[in-house]
Structure formats: structure tokens, C-alpha cells
Design brief:
The strands form eight sheets. The chain has an 18-stranded antiparallel β-sheet that branches. Strands 8, 9, 10, 11, 14, 15, 16, 17, 18, 19 and 20 form an eleven-stranded antiparallel β-sheet that branches. A four-stranded antiparallel β-sheet has the order 3-2-5-6, with no helix packed on it. Mean pLDDT is about 80; it is low at about 1-20 and about 100-110. The chain is mainly beta and about 850 residues long. The chain is elongated, with a radius of gyration of 31 Å.
């Protein structure tokens, strides 16, 4: 969601730039029957500057040099030389005739053979030697890296310029230019530059990047935008079997499974930098898969890639992205080592993939230099700092950038900084920026205070009826060392006010030692989740959903106070300890939390019953999230949208007698989530939760298997269970969810264009309950436990209209239970690539 909101923001930022290309040409390649020829090679004569036509045969090519002719080639057709009479030539129609003689290399048409294909022989040699090429030949390496990221509005026309949206900002349209990849007009709107010192050790498989300088147009110090950009353009290795872009796994043209995914054609051979190289063209065997089209040059002896150009196929099942184009260049270090020196990636973001639709280009250029090898560093050198920020890197003087830029900015790129600084003084621009910020964060910003979250303003449940909520938080900046949050809510049926107040203070920035505490008095759905945390203001969607699948009065009045301290002992490993005190009582006349304090006996047949619970509890938690990426350095951080493993353990101790507490017990809970990317088959998530309570406890403290009585898909709940349908004091749940990413529907011809995506999954739970806990139950609620393993399975279709997902869930057993839901339909909304 944050990615789409930020991209929307880029749509309304605009400034001027002019490029200085000398030769521009666009057109379409056709055969004699006027049918387009996809994946044709178009090259400026006498150069290595070229491009591959798209699936419709269209191309655009640009160079700062002057050229007088094009060479157009395609498998099965005669090569054609096209004279260029002018420096700018648009809308060429180039017609190729069928080849009469093939005397240089064997050329294949359509789907290429997997046998007797010289291109595949070369590909196999690349596989054999890929770990010997480049940086992998050395034990250690270090180098300097320069990275430039730019965003541009594209397809600018007169109607767009006259849009009322840009009233007061018309000056940004003084100049436009044309992309050297797509041929579309564009306006630069954002630029960011970074310089790094990079260190790597192949023996211990560690890499460290030290940021030495960062400069961003108009948004210096905004870590959210910086992290968004970094995650948007994550690093990749072209030799890997699969390349991850926008949270999708693309099959690399150099993959060992590439033979089954791509067609390969040995097209040409030539000297590049005094090295004899082969040119191989590749294009996908099937539509709608996450693949590329393009070509690469590979050395004839080392079989290292010298240069590769590739673009994503138009039919690829990816949202909001019309085009991805990648160039990589390698230089010869010696006779056997090729090192990556330039990496260029361009993405065309748009609401749809129509040719004339407007969008935003995102361009990243990465350059490398000053390589040094086999200089060993101690292993502790690669240890990540827990919470380190050097503000000086964001305030480098102009002299630093003059010295450390690997290539100078042209005058128009340099002008972006000045243009955006001017734009931020425009009232209209500030209004647009604030609107997008509200939609993205959910908060309305005032000076040092944010109102919200606005998405929690309305709610509904059987006890409160319509529920209104207002709240806010202190906010001086994203790196605040302390923060206060508060809310109040009112229910129109119970005529009661509720409230919550919490505060956090980071007393040690280096190790992120944070003290937090608060109090909440509210109505809650207990048992909406199994694993507990110290979040004092956390509220389940289950108790505030506007629409539900059935009646639910099993709500609880909760008065909860909490005090805790946490420390990030090492990067992404958090240890916390806390103390809490809560009182629980039923919020509904139709629901009871009653329990026996004295069991019925011959002398007292009714026993002694109590309706409320007072409980003091101490706990210690351990949380480990390897490879997690965060944004900011303050007391609260945002997560970058990147999958990572999550391991959580909680030990709780009931302290009977402390503050008149009722029960003594020990509880352990474990949560583990593991995402698994299975190459072209998509991604799985495995989730395990297990826990046990030692001691005698009432219903209010039991482990309730989380049901889902809403119409929405909620992670870690069971779609076919009602609230309180299963109650346990010992449980184990296991979930498997898999996203195929549209790979199955892509094989069905009439469904390809829908770009739907398939989901499947299974959830299961086993639980027990002790006789002592059964004995004190006076609530009238029967204690049903899933001793025979309750399970359900689901299948779903996602990416419906790009924002909607629907899941169909079936109950596997326990079909004869009262009010059992044998089948359920749930939905969810979201913005995904």
C-alpha cells in the first residue's frame, strides 16, 4: 500500500529537464504481410548501441552520438540497413523480407529447439563457470559504489499540462524530453544520489555497505522515501536463477531452468573491447509468465557476460508496472575476470498497460569503481549496527559531490534540486503533498501532533452498537526518541466512553533500549489471536468490524495497564520484559466469564462463583527477525515491504496475590513464520504457533482458538470457526499458504488476459484442556477442544481488478458441531505489484 501511495505522490511532483541526445529513432518492424515482428534487433550501424523490439514490433532508440543508419535483424529474415536522413526520425515502418541465405550462424524461428542449438551450448558453459566469474573469484573484495535514482512523469501532453491539478505549478512544464528506451515524453520529478564503500567476504558470505554520502531533491533526511526507493530497486545478480523485482520472482535468462522458459538464438559474434563475444537473443516461450526479452554478449573463452539488455514482457502478470528495462555492462579486469561496472534499470509505473497511458518512470543507475581484492577484515567488521545513523552523510557539501560522483550530472539533472526546492514553496503543491501523506499514513498532520488513525474512526459490535473513535499522537519527526498516543471512543448502545493512553521513551539509542507503559479501558474480543504482545493500544478487527457473518455478544470489558522495557540486543533480535495488570468481566448479558472459586460440594452444592478476573502478570519475550529491513531510527519504526522470517517466544507468569491477583500460572507461547520463495512456482508462508499454560485458570485467561466472523480474510485466524468455538490451555496450530502468482492461469488461454492469481492453503490446530480447568468453568460455555485436529482448507483468486481477493474456505471436520460453518467466503482489498 505504501508503495502505491508514494508512486501516486510522484505523479504530482513535476519539474523541468532537457536531454542532449543527437540521434533518435522510433518505429515498428513488420514482415511483408504487415504483421509485427517481435524481438527484432535494432542497432545503430557501426556501434553496439541497440534495442530489441517489443511484442508489437515497436522500438525506440536514442544515442548522444550521430548515426546515419540502422541495422535491423530478426530470426528467419534478411538483415536490413535503414538510412537515417535526419537526426530525429519517428514512426518508421521497417519491412523485413524472408532470409534467402544464412551463412554466418544457424538461426531458429518461433519456438527454438532444445537440441542442436549452439546458443544452448554456450548457455551451459555459462552455468559451468558463473561462480568463477567476477567477484566470486576472490576471498574478499571492496569497491566504491555510486547510485542515482530518478523518477519522471511520462507521456506529457498539452491536455495534461492544462489540468487544474497543476494550477499554480505551470512553470514545471517549461521543458520536456524523450526517453531513450520508450520514446515517451517525460519530466523529471525526483532525484537521489548515494555513495557507498562496499566490502564483501566470500568465505563467510558477508557483505557490508557503508553509506558515505546521500543527496535527495527536496526531501533530505526523509528516511521513508529513501527506504521505499531502496526496496523498490533491490540488488540482484544476473547469474541467479531467479531475480526478485517488486516482490515478484522473475526467471533469469541465465537460469538453469531457462531452457524451459525461454527461446534462445545465437545471433551474431564480434569484438567488444578487444574480446571476441557471442550475441544471443532470448524471448519467452509462453505469455503471462514473469520473464524477459532481450539479448546478451558473452565472451568466447571465459563465458562471462560482457553486456546484457532485457525488458519484461508486456504480458507479464505484474500490476502497476508497464515496463521494466535493464542494462548491465562488465569490464575486463584481466584475461579471466569480468566485473560489473554499470547497472541501469528503468521501470514504467502506470495504472494500466495501455500504450498511451500516463505514468511515472523510475530509473536507477549504479556505477562501480576502485576494486580491491583479498584484503581481509575481521568478522566483527561485518556486524550490523543496531540503530546507527550518521546525519553528516545527508549534509555533504557540493565539494564532496564534485569529487565523489562517478559521472557528472548533466545541467538538467542538476537543475532538479533547485526546481523541487522552488516547488515546495508553492501552496498548491503543499496541499497535494499533505493529501497523499494522509492517505498513506492514516494520520492528519498538525504541528508536532498527528490526528488519527482516521481508518479507525467508525466501528460496530453488538454491545456498543455504532462506535466512534478519535485519537492522536505526538510527532516531531520520523526519528522521535519518545512518543505519546491516546484515544477515546464512545458506543451509542452502551452509552459508555472508553479510552487508551500509552507512551514510549528510547533511553539508549545505540541498543534501542525503550521504556513503555500505558492504560486501556475498552471492550475487546478476547481470543482474536493466540500469541500475545505488549502493545497496550492494540485492538482486534474482530471487535470493531462494521459487518460480520453472525451475531457475537461474546465481548469483554478490559482494563489493562502495562509497563515494559525492551532492548535490541543485536540487529533484529529484541528482548523485552514487562509487568501488566488487568481486570476482565463480561460486556454482555448473554455471555459469561464466571468461574468457581470454591467447587460445589455436599456442604455447598452451588459452590462459590466469581464473575470478574483480576490478574497480575510478568512476562519476558524474545523476538528474532533475520533480514528484516526497517525505516527510521526513532522509538517507532516502519517496516519495509520485504518478506522475512519471524521467530517469537513469550514466557508469562501469573502472580497470585500481587495487587489482589486471582491466579498463579506459567505460560509459554512460540510463534514462527517462514516465507519460502519457490522460484517460478511462487511463494509459500509456513506459520507455526504453539503454547501451553501450566496451572488452573478461568475462561478469561484461556487460549481461545481464533475464529473469524467477519467478511474479511484475517491472517492467523480460522475462517470457518466462530469466536470461542474451541477453547484450550495447550495448543499447536500449523498453516501453509501459497501464492502461485498467476502461473497456473497463465497456462489457460482464455484466462491469461485477466491476470488473476491463485492462492491455496491449509490450516490445522490440535488442542487439549486439563480437568482442573474444566472443573472451575461456571460460564455456561461448553469447553470444546480440537483433540482430533481440526482443519480447514481454502483456495482463492487474487488480483481481481488489481485490488480485490476472494477466498473460499471449506471445513475439513467437526462438521456436526452446533452452528458449524462448513463453507465460508472471505474477501480482502490491497494494492500489490
Amino acid at each position: 500500500m505504501k508503495r502505491i501511495i508514494l508512486l501516486s505522490l510522484f505523479f504530482v511532483f513535476a519539474f523541468a529537464a532537457i536531454a542532449t541526445a543527437q540521434t533518435k529513432v522510433s518505429g515498428i518492424v513488420l514482415d511483408k504481410s504487415n504483421q509485427p515482428i517481435p524481438f527484432a534487433n535494432v542497432v545503430f550501424k557501426g556501434s553496439n548501441t541497440g534495442i530489441v523490439s517489443n511484442e508489437d514490433g515497436r522500438f525506440y532508440l536514442e544515442s548522444p552520438n550521430t548515426y546515419t543508419a540502422l541495422i535491423v535483424t530478426s530470426a528467419g529474415f534478411s538483415d536490413k540497413e535503414v538510412p537515417l536522413e535526419k537526426a530525429v526520425n519517428y514512426n518508421f515502418k521497417i519491412v523485413l523480407g524472408e532470409a534467402e541465405a544464412l551463412n554466418e550462424v544457424v538461426i531458429y524461428t518461433g519456438k527454438t529447439s532444445k537440441k542442436n542449438n549452439p546458443a544452448l551450448d554456450i548457455l551451459r558453459k555459462i552455468w559451468e563457470r558463473k561462480r568463477k566469474n567476477g567477484l566470486y573469484q576472490f576471498n574478499q573484495y571492496q569497491m566504491q559504489k555510486y547510485e542515482k535514482v530518478e523518477f519522471d512523469m511520462n507521456t506529457i501532453d498539452s491536455a495534461f499540462m492544462k489540468n487544474k491539478l497543476f494550477k499554480g505549478m505551470e512553470f514545471v512544464f517549461n521543458h520536456v524530453d524523450t526517453s531513450d528506451v520508450t520514446g515517451k515524453t517525460y519530466l523529471p520529478i525526483f532525484i537521489n544520489e548515494s555513495v557507498y564503500d562496499v566490502y564483501g567476504d566470500n568465505k563467510i558470505k558477508k557483505v557490508k555497505e557503508n553509506l558515505t554520502g546521500n543527496k535527495m531533491s527536496g526531501f533530505n533526511g526523509n528516511q521513508q522515501i529513501l527506504a521505499f526507493v531502496k526496496d523498490l530497486y533491490s540488488d540482484y545478480n544476473i547469474y541467479d536463477n531467479h531475480l526478485k523485482f517488486f516482490d515478484k520472482s522473475f526467471t533469469s535468462p541465465l537460469s538453469r531452468t531457462g531452457i524451459d522458459v525461454y527461446n534462445y538464438v545465437l545471433k551474431d559474434s564480434a569484438y567488444i573491447d578487444k574480446k571476441w563475444c557471442f550475441n544471443i537473443v532470448f524471448y519467452p516461450r509462453r505469455k503471462n509468465e514473469l520473464t524477459f526479452k532481450g539479448d546478451f554478449w558473452v565472451n568466447d573463452t571465459t563465458f562471462a557476460i560482457k553486456k546484457i539488455n532485457m525488458g519484461v514482457t508486456k504480458s507479464a502478470n505484474i500490476n502497476w508496472v508497464k515496463d521494466i528495462y535493464i542494462e548491465q555492462e562488465f569490464e575486463v579486469e584481466n584475461d579471466s575476470i569480468f566485473l560489473l561496472t554499470r547497472d541501469y534499470m528503468m521501470s514504467d509505473f502506470a495504472l494500466n498497460k495501455k500504450e498511451k497511458s500516463k505514468g511515472v518512470y523510475g530509473k536507477r543507475t549504479t556505477l562501480y569503481r576502485n576494486h580491491k581484492f583479498n584484503i581481509q577484515k575481521p568478522e566483527k567488521f561485518y556486524k550490523e549496527e543496531v540503530n546507527f545513523i550518521d546525519n553528516a552523510v545527508y549534509e555533504r557539501p557540493p565539494e564532496f559531490w564534485e569529487e565523489n560522483r562517478f559521472e557528472k550530472l548533466n545541467k538538467d539533472e542538476a537543475g532538479i534540486y533547485k526546481m523541487l526546492d522552488t516547488l515546495q514553496t508553492v501552496k498548491r503543491f503543499k496541499q497535494l503533498y499533505n493529501l497523499v501523506s494522509i492517505l498513506g499514513s492514516g494520520y492528519v498532520e498538525f504541528k508536532n501532533f498527528d490526528y488519527g488513525p482516521i481508518y479507525s474512526t467508525f466501528g460496530y459490535n453488538e454491545v456498543e452498537g455504532l462506535r466512534l473513535r478519535v485519537g492522536g499522537r505526538t510527532y516531531f519527526g520520523p526519528n522521535d526518541p519518545w512518543r505519546l498516543q491516546a484515544y477515546t471512543a464512545y458506543g451509542f448502545d452502551d452509552n459508555k466512553f472508553k479510552y487508551g493512553l500509552s507512551g514510549k521513551w528510547m533511553v539508549d539509542k545505540k541498543n534501542r533500549v525503550i521504556i513503555s507503559g500505558g492504560n486501556r479501558r475498552d471492550i475487546e474480543q478476547i481470543g482474536a489471536s493466540l500469541t500475545t504482545t505488549n502493545d497496550i493500544l492494540g485492538r482486534s478487527f474482530a471487535s470493531s468490524a462494521l459487518f460480520t457473518t453472525g451475531s457475537n455478544g461474546k465481548l469483554t470489558n478490559i482494563n489493562l495497564s502495562n509497563l515494559s522495557v525492551e532492548m535490541e540486543a543485536k540487529k533484529n533480535f529484541v528482548v523485552s520484559a514487562g509487568f501488566s495488570y488487568r481486570t476482565l468481566e463480561s460486556a454482555s448479558k448473554t455471555f459469561s466469564l464466571d468461574y468457581y472459586t470454591t467447587l460445589p460440594s455436599m456442604t455447598n452444592p452451588t459452590g462459590v462463583i466469581k464473575s470478574d478476573v483480576k490478574q497480575s502478570e510478568a512476562n519476558i519475550q524474545f523476538e528474532y527477525m533475520p533480514n528484516r529491513k526497517t525505516i527510521g531510527y526513532g522509538v517507532e519504526r516502519d517496516l519495509v515491504d520485504s518478506p522475512f522470517s519471524h521467530f517469537f517466544v513469550n514466557f508469562s507468569y501469573g502472580l497470585k496475590g500481587v495487587l489482589d491477583s486471582d491466579f498463579a500460572y506459567e505460560k509459554i507461547q512460540v510463534f514462527y513464520k517462514q516465507p519460502i520463495i519457490i522460484g517460478p512456482l511462487g511463494r509459500s508462508n509456513i506459520i507455526l504457533e504453539t503454547g501451553k499454560t501450566f496451572g488452573t485458570i478461568p475462561l478469561g485467561l484461556m487460549s481461545v482458538i481464533p475464529g473469524n466472523q467477519t467478511y474479511f480474510t484475517i491472517e492467523n485466524t480460522f475462517s470457518n470457526l466462530n469466536f470461542y468455538e474451541f477453547v484450550t490451555d495447550q495448543y499447536t496450530t500449523l498453516q501453509w499458504n501459497h501464492d502461485f502468482g498467476g502461473r497456473l492461469f497463465a497456462r489457460v488461454p482464455f484466462m491469461r488476459k485477466l491476470n488473476w492469481r491463485e492462492f491455496v492453503g491449509v490450516r490445522a490446530v490440535h488442542g487439549t484442556i486439563s480437568e482442573a480447568n474444566r472443573a472451575i468453568n461456571a460460564s455456561g460455555l461448553p469447553y470444546n477442544v480440537p483433540e482430533n485436529i481440526y482443519w480447514e482448507y481454502h483456495a482463492g483468486i487474487g488480483n481481481i481488478f488489481k485490488v480485490f481477493r476472494i477466498d473460499f474456505s471449506w471445513r475439513g471436520n467437526y462438521l456436526d458441531m452446533p452452528d458449524a460453518h462448513k463453507f465460508a467466503v472471505k474477501g480482502s482489498f490491497g494494492f500489490y505489484f
